[in-house]
Structure formats: C-alpha cells, structure tokens
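Hi R.,

Here's the chain you asked about this morning:
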Amino acid sequence: MEKCHHIHGGLHDAVRSGCLEAVCLMLGNGADVNAKDGSGNTPLLLAVCIRQEEIYNAIVKRLIESGADVNAYNKGLTPLYNAVFYKRQESVRMLLQEGAWLAPTFRNELHLLAELGGSNILEIILSDKRCTPDTVNLPDEKGWTPLHLAAQYYHRNCLKMLIKHGGDLTVVNSEDDSVIDIIFREIIKPERIIKELLDEQILMKRTDKYKHYYTIDFTVLAPKKCRRQMEVISNVLVVASEDEKTEVLQHPVIELYLLLKWSRISYFFYLWISIYAVFAVFMGFYATLILHNYHVLHVMKTTVKYILILTSSGLLGHAILQCVLMNRNYLRRYELWMNLICTCLSLTVVIIADHTVDDSNGNAQHSNFSGAPTWLLHATSIAVLLAWIELMLLIGRLPSLGYYALMFSTVLQNVVKVLLAFLCLVIGFALSFSIQFRSYEQFSDPWRALVKTTVMMMGEFEYADLFADSRGGSLLPRIIFLMFIILTSIVLMNLMVGLAVSDIQELQRRGRARKLEKRAEFLCQLEKVISSRQLNSKYIPTLIKRVFVRRSFVDDKYELETSAEFHRTHRVPRRLMDSITAIAKGRKQLQEEN
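And the predicted structure, written out as tokens:
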C-alpha cells in the first residue's frame, strides 16, 4: 500500500481518504475515535466513503479496536447500515460481534437487504441471537415489513430466510396487502416458493430400528401472534388462481393441517347441518299447514312456528355476521344470498301467515287455497325451495359426499354458461313459435312461448298436436320446427352433455384439491366467526369461550410416526403419511450430498 501524504483535518479526513497508515497514526497520537465533524459524523460513519473493500474492512477493524461507537447514529445512518448498503460482509460480521445492531428507525437493515437482495449478509444478521420474530416483522413508516419488500422485489432466498426466522405472511401494510398477496401478485410461479417453504417444515426428528418420527411445523401457516390460524390459507384462497390453488392445497403440510383443524371443529359443521336440517324440515311442514289450513293442528302449528322463528333467526344472524367479518369476495357467493333470502322470507311467512290465513272473514279478493293469499304462497314456495337447496349444498360439503357436490356445481355452471351464450337462439325460436302457433295456449304470449320452447329442447316436441290442423300443412312452420330440432335438441343439447362429461373428467383430476378448497373455505368462515370480538367479549361466559374458541386451535407442531399403531389411532391417511416421509427423506438425502 502506498504511503499516504500528510493529511490535514485530523482523523475524519484520514478515514475519508482511505489511508490506513494515517488512521493508525492519528489514533496512535490520541485522536478521539468518536469525535463528530461539522455534519455530525464519526470516523466510523465516514468509512462509507472508502470504495476498496479490503481497505474499508481494515480501517473499520482498526477503529473498532480503538473503541469506536459501533452504534453511532446520524441522519438515519449507522455503521452497520452503511456496511449493509455496500454489502461489506466482513465488516457486517465485525460490527455485529462488537455489539452493533439495527438502525433505530422504521426502515432498518432488514428492509434494505430485502429490497436490494443479499442473502449472505441477511443470514449473518438473522443468525444473531438478538434477531427475534418481532424484529423480522417490524414495519416501516408505510407498514411494509422486510417480507413485503422481499416479495415485491422478487428476492426468493431472502424471502425464504425471513419466513424461516419467524416472518409473518399475514401482516398487512398500509395498502391492505398481505405478504401472501404480494407473493402471488409479483413472483413468477409463486406456488413453487410456497411448496419449497412447506417442504422445509417437515423434519426427520429421530429414527430407530422399527419406527420413523417426523415433526411438522405449522408456524408458517399459523403465525403465533395471529388470532386466526386460517389467515394464511384464507389469503391464498382469495389471491391464487385455480391452478395455483390446486398445487398449493395438495401439499402434504397443508392437507395435514386442514385435517387436524377439521378434526378440532368439525362438530360445528355437523351442528350447523343439524340446525339447517331442522329448519328445512319444519319449513316444509309449516308450509303444508298453511296450504291446507288444518285448524285441528293449531297447537302443532304454534310449536312449529316458534321453532322456525328460533332457527331462522339464528341462521340469519350467522349470515349477517359473516357479511360483516368476511372480505368483499365473500359477498359474491351465491350461497350467502340464498341463505339471506331464504331466512328473511321464512321469518316473513312465519310472522304474517297466521294473521292472514286465520282471518275469519276469508278476504276472498286476495285469497285462494283455503284462505292463503297468493303472495304468501309464492313467498313460502321460494323459501321452502331455497331451504332444501341450501341443505343439499351443506350436505355436499361432507368429506364423503363433497366430490358429488362439486360435480353437480361444475356441470350446473357450465350448463348456465352455454344457455346464456345461446340465449338469443332460444328467444328467437320462442318468438317465432309464438307467431306460428299463436292459437295454442302454450304459445299465447312470449313468456309462455319461451317456457314451452325450453321444455321442447328436452325432447317434448308434441309434433302431432302442433301440426294437427290445416295450418300444419304449410311448409314454413315445419322448416322452422326442423331447424329448432337440429340446432337446439341435437347440437345444443349434445354440446352441453359433452361439456358435462369433459368437466367431470377434469374434476376427477382436480377433485381432491377442490374438496380441500371447500373444506378450507368453511374453516376460514367458521374461524372468523368464532374468533370475532363479539364471541370473545368479556360478557361471554368463560366456558363458551373455551368450547368455541380455544378448542378450534391446533398446536404449531405435530409429531408423526409411520407405525401401524399410530395410523390406527390418529387416522392420518396412508397416502398423506407416505408423501410426508418422501419429502423428509428427500431433503435429508440432499443435505447429506451437499
């Protein structure tokens, strides 16, 4: 190293120029190692001006040995922050060993590394005993944690390190974006990084001659400080695409977690089905009593009435609570609106029906069917229909029956799409038939013609009746009728059948993921309800809190054995156990090779 010329201005100038000999000389002559210049910088802070890494490290080491304050602070900068910014790995290690720590600001070194990248330096800081999950999840002035920034700038290694050291995927910034939101929005193939993170949560604890033990850590899915253990999976269900959800939800860690969670609170689901079954049965029974106006069963009608008021009020309250607690996407679910309409109509019918039907004067101008008004009959029929449809959908969520419910909903959605796409064709034929066959009652107006045309699409043509009279001999009606048979009954109906078959084949491939998705959706909804402030209020008895809230939580770690005895007692599917052991053994073999 060349000798430095005499530097005027003391230790600060010597450090700024990067002359190690001058720095040593100044320190040897008793220069104050923590003196501040006119800008408030100490010599250790000014070392950032040195470009050569070797000289920088040497001068930093010499200043530290002379007692420099490793936590000197000026205008948001510290020696550690400067070393991290210029990625001086050796200096970072020296500063941390001498007691330096993260800058006392909202935006610290972890935010900087997450934005710029630098997994080697990040690993050094995270391995420090002072680095806690609270440090990793510290937000800046905009609410962005290091995890947000690592995902935003696509630094996969930094993101995985931060999560491994306690990073919370559920933290939300000022823009209401969680870490999961940014991962699925900014990172290419986000399901891969999620699966890599989940693979690392499976560890082979110990082995003996006959048994293998594995520990599965659920902390990534259920951060300790998060009130809802389904929050991470809930965010995945909202932001991920169908293909991404199919990949992520079928990971053994998530599948096992959902299985354990379901076993803890499945009785809520069965209780919910039981309440809805009582509601649907008694609603149908009450509708029968209204229709026939059985006066001899007045006592029974009153009992059924109060049961319906109780059950429908509970169901309505639960639906309203879900609207308040769930995100906006939940408002798009048709099941929610079916529940709201059904319960509101039921309450209306139950409260008003007795006063209307039991009117001794009869009210003939508004009534039919034993005194029941027409509007009341319509409302009752809609309520009964929706109640039983909703019960069917709930039963379809059972693990053993969920596959069939998914097939039904998928086929229904595609049939509706096809009918909407070809609605103009159906309307055109309906209007044409209403003109050609206007003398028939079924085609007397456009609405009846549309209903009859839709029925004819199923094969109920009634050809002999339509062309029985003299007008049937004309050529044009027969040509239109033939076109209708070809275009709708043959082409359109076979198109819908073909789509249904192809969808079922695709559903067989994705069936397990869809069932897991439905289970996860129910668990997310239920957990938001039972963890709400209303249920955890101080006015709620402790026993109810223990039953409804604490029972729903699962431990953050789960120990799994591959023995037959463990399989019989814990009822973990053999397929799931094989997947977990394969991942653990694969990771262990990879570590041994490296």
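Residues 1-8, 358-369 have pLDDT under 50 and may be disordered.

Let me know if you need anything else.
M.
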